[in-house]
Amino acid sequence: MSTLAIVGAGPQLGRAIGRRFAAEGVDVALIARSRTTLQAVADDLSDMGVRAEAFPADVTDRPALHAALTAAEERLGPIDLLEYSPAPSLADLRRAPLVEATKVTVDSVLAQLDLYLLGGVAAVQHVLPGMLERGTGTILISSGAGSGPVIAPHVANVQIATGGMRNWILNLHAALSGTGVYAAHVAIAAFIGQGGHDSQPQTIADAYWRLHTGRTEAELVIQDLPDDYLERGLADKFVEP
């Protein structure tokens, strides 16, 4: 029995990824800030006959993230699979707004580095030593496709952080060759749950499972943005009603 830790687990993609892996008998540790959201997803996954538990933590609080991952290991066993896909809340966006390319400042980038790049480094470095020791493991790191494959100047401060994360994971993929541990980056160019078939959480979750079982690609780009994505701006869940 394997254990998957989903860091940044939410009610859409996180739930779908959890369900896809749970369907294969994988236990799931769910990590994010909202205990209520996590517990609802955990209850859903538990109904599929696997162990699924919530471990609330903020990825920008490194000791809390470490404690959550440690608790998950103690409860569910070694983490064989890690999926990292944090997303800002509306409160995050009010505190640290998105900035377009001509207005980027040092301060506007720092909060994004904390959420995406540094949180990702902390999560990976927690699980990677054990994976290398066991000679097996999967690390899937997700971001918007503005991290490299797609141009998104209206969120440039985020893309500085996610671009760094993408570069690191592509290099990690190469560095892990022959170790039995697999790492890949997933660049999501889609309004998840709002577009066509390729934007639906279950479709994307199926792609994650194929990455995990295929273990060859350094990067998967999910491209399902409308032609007017630059004018449209953010996904609906990040826009105040």
From TrEMBL:
Protein name: SDR family NAD(P)-dependent oxidoreductase
InterPro entries: NAD(P)-bd_dom_sf, SDR_fam
Organism: Streptomyces tendae
Xref: Pfam families: adh_short
